[in-house]
Every structure is written in structure tokens, then in C-alpha cells.
């Protein structure tokens, strides 16, 4: 089964396309790392994938529906890049934010023990149990990301889309974070993630897509490291270092 199908997609904010003729599928259960230089269209492509932008040309299909018309939002967990500023005024607690992930299961009626277990389990899973009664707006960026992920877990999301989730996070916390993502991916969650650190992403992702407006590479990480796609995408830029972890 395919989670996301991007078929010959072009998108422009103004005159010039920032994503051009990109074709790419994400299979269910895949862990796709999206890489490319700054301004290469990664965030835009991620938003196209989850229906936050509509292509000018081509189609994006999300779980067999046109992405822009996809209305089962709780199946998609999205952790935006600006999570540190997003909802900084959010007056709700961590537990309330995670509980929102259960709303689709409770159009009518009260939260039951199953919901409470899902909410508590999701908070424990990402290590925010001790923050349950804190206001989301008072948390650090990293903690807030975990709230978003816990909410996706509580809602039993099928796809998690993360935009540079480990920027500004120290190496140790980053490893813990990737361990969490691996665990979720092993349980069947499809993951697409933008990561600026090529060494980290080629270690962790099962597939790599390298973008610079157009798609320069899509395939497995080993092949990506062997090819020249990265240098091509960066216009032969120096200072791109592969390193193993
Ligand atoms: P990346 O995530 O690879 O850094 P983006 O998708 O954020 O790239 O941006 C691609 C290009 O589109 C950049 O030139 C950026 O300045 C431009 N861009 C991004 N968002 C907007 C927007 N809302 N309006 C106009 N231009 C935008």
C-alpha cells in the first residue's frame, strides 16, 4: 500500500516554481528522509504531501484520496518547523493537547478508560508524563515537539511528517529522539522527515529523497551516499560531509 503518491507535481508561491515536476511515492511503513539545500523546497513538498498546499500541476494522493481534500486529519501527525513559536500562547495543558488526538473517536460521549490509557500511554512513550499538567505554551521547543508526537500517537495516526525536528537539539537527545521514531516506525507508522544533517538521516531513514526544486535522487541511503546526487543537488557545493554514526 502506498501512503503518499506525488505525481509530476509542480508548485509556485509566485512566478517561479519552488517544486518542479517531482514524482515520488512513500510506501506504508517507510521512513523517508527528505534532504536538500536551504530553500530547495523541502518544507513546501512536505506540505504538498499532507495537503497543506495544492499543486499547480500534477497530483498528490494521500491514502488514496487527493491530499488537498483529505479530511481525516487525525491520521496525519504534523510537526512543523516553527513548533517553537507555533501556539506559544496555547493556554492548554500537555494532557489536554494530547487528548485532542482522541476527539475523532469521541464525536459523542465521554472519554472512556481506553481513551485515558491511549493518552497516558502516548505521553509516557515520548517521555512527557511529568509535564502533563504544564501549559504547552511554557514548554521548550523540544518538549513541544514531543507533545505533537504524543498527540499523533494518541490519535493512532498513520503518517508522521516532521520538519527538521532536531534543529538545536544536542546529539544525545537527538539519538533518543531517533530511537523513538524507529520504535514507532517498527510498529508500522509511516514517517517522512526533513533533516539537514546528511550523516544522521542516511543512518536512520530507510529511503532518501534529495531535492533542489527538482528531485535529484530517490532511493536507499547506501546508494545515495555512493552517488553524486547530493553534490549535484547542492550545485557541487563543497563542505558536504558524509559521516557515520
Ligand atoms: P526548504 O524547506 O528546503 O528550506 P522551502 O520549501 O521552505 O524550502 O522554500 C522553498 C522556496 O520557497 C524558498 O525560496 C522560500 O523562500 C520560498 N517560500 C517558502 N514559503 C513561502 C511562502 N509562504 N511564500 C512565498 N515564498 C515562500
TrEMBL record:
Class of enzymatic activity (EC top level): translocase
Key words, A-Z: ATP-binding, Nucleotide-binding, Transport
Catalytic activity: an R-cob(III)alamin(out) + ATP + H2O = an R-cob(III)alamin(in) + ADP + phosphate + H(+)
Region forming the signal peptide: none
InterPro entries: AAA+_ATPase, ABC_transporter-like_ATP-bd, ABC_transporter-like_CS, Metal_Ion_Import_ABC, P-loop_NTPase
Domain ABC transporter: 4-238
Gene3D superfamilies linked: P-loop containing nucleotide triphosphate hydrolases (3.40.50.300)
GO molecular function annotations of the record: ABC-type vitamin B12 transporter activity; ATP binding; ATP hydrolysis activity
SMART domains: AAA (SM00382)
EC number(s) per entry: 7.6.2.8
UniProt keyword RNA-binding, yes or no: no
Protein family (similarity comment): Belongs to the ABC transporter superfamily.
Job description of the protein: Required for corrinoid utilization. Probably part of the ABC transporter complex BtuCDF involved in cobalamin (vitamin B12) import. Probably responsible for energy coupling to the transport system.
Assembly: The complex is composed of two ATP-binding proteins (BtuD), two transmembrane proteins (BtuC) and a solute-binding protein (BtuF).
Name of the featured protein: Cobalamin import ATP-binding protein BtuD
Organism: Natronomonas salsuginis
Amino acid at each position: 500500500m502506498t501512503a503518499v503518491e506525488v505525481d509530476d507535481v509542480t508548485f509556485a508561491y509566485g512566478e517561479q516554481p519552488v517544486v518542479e515536476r517531482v514524482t515520488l511515492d512513500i510506501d506504508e511503513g517507510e521512513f523517508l528522509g527528505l534532504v536538500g539545500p536551504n530553500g530547495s523546497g523541502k518544507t513546501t513538498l512536505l506540505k504538498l504531501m499532507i495537503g497543506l498546499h495544492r499543486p499547480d500541476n500534477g497530483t498528490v494522493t494521500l491514502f488514496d484520496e487527493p491530499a488537498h481534500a483529505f479530511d481525516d486529519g487525525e491520521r496525519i501527525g504534523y510537526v512543523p518547523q516553527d513548533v517553537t513559536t507555533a501556539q506559544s500562547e496555547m493556554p492548554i495543558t500537555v494532557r489536554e493537547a494530547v487528548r485532542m488526538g482522541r476527539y475523532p473517536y469521541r464525536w459523542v460521549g465521554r472519554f472512556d478508560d481506553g481513551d485515558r490509557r491511549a493518552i497516558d500511554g502516548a505521553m509516557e512513550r515520548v517521555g512527557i508524563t511529568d509535564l502533563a499538567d504544564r501549559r504547552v505554551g511554557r514548554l521548550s521547543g523540544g518538549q513541544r515537539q514531543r507533545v505533537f508526537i504524543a498527540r499523533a500517537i494518541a490519535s493512532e495516526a498513520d503518517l508522521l511528517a516532521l520538519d527538521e525536528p532536531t534543529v538545536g537539539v544536542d546529539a544525545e537527545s537527538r539519538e533518543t529522539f531517533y530511537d523513538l521514531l524507529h520504535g514507532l516506525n517498527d510498529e508500522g507508522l509511516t514517517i517522512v522527515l526533513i533533516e539537514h544533517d546528511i550523516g544522521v538521516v542516511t543512518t536512520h531513514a530507510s529511503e532518501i529523497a534529495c531535492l533542489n526544486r527538482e528531485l535529484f535522487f530517490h532511493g536507499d541511503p547506501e546508494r545515495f551516499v555512493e552517488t553524486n546526487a547530493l553534490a549535484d543537488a547542492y550545485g557541487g557545493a563543497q563542505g558536504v560531509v558524509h559521516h557515520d554514526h
